[in-house]
Structures are given as structure tokens and as C-alpha cells.
Specification:
25% of the residues lie in helices and 26% in strands. It is an alpha/beta fold. The strands form two sheets. Strands 1-4-5 form a three-stranded parallel β-sheet, with helices on one face. Strands 2-3 form a two-stranded antiparallel ribbon. The protein is globular and about 35 Å long.
């Protein structure tokens, strides 16, 4: 089974917090939001994960690591 985590968009409704980082990397109860989604996916036994992201895809990759696939969303 595969999972696709859509992490695109500009996060304009969360400005100014999303001016320099992606909304999925914002903390919620001390953890980046993306960690909750990834934990749920991994707990379901899914290992083939692709994250689709925007200009902040490298920041997401730096946080998540290289054990998932990444796709750059050129425009929302």
C-alpha cells in the first residue's frame, strides 16, 4: 500500500507564521504537524510514502528525512 501526503499550498491564512516555513512544520503540542500524519501512516503499516510539497519541500525533507519520496508542486 502507498500513501500520498499532500503538503502544498501557500498557507496564506496562517501568515505571518508561514512566511519562512511550511504550515506542516508549525508546532502543535510541541511537534511539527506533519509528524502526526506520518505517525498515523506508519502505524498503519504503510512504508511507501510520498510527500507532495511546495517551495518549502527541502525544509520538509530536512525534517522528515530520506526514507520517503518527495515531489515538488510547481504551482498550487
Amino acid at each position: 500500500m502507498k500513501a500520498i501526503l499532500v503538503a502544498g499550498g501557500h498557507g496564506s491564512r496562517l501568515l505571518p507564521m508561514t512566511k519562512y516555513t511550511h504550515k506542516t512544520l508549525l508546532p502543535l503540542c510541541g511537534r511539527p504537524i506533519i509528524d502526526y500524519a506520518l505517525s498515523t501512516i506508519r502505524n498503519a503499516g504503510i512504508k511507501d510514502i510520498t510527500i507532495i510539497g511546495n517551495k518549502f519541500i527541502e525544509k520538509i525533507r530536512n525534517h522528515v528525512g530520506d526514507d520517503v519520496n518527495y515531489v515538488l508542486e510547481e504551482s498550487p
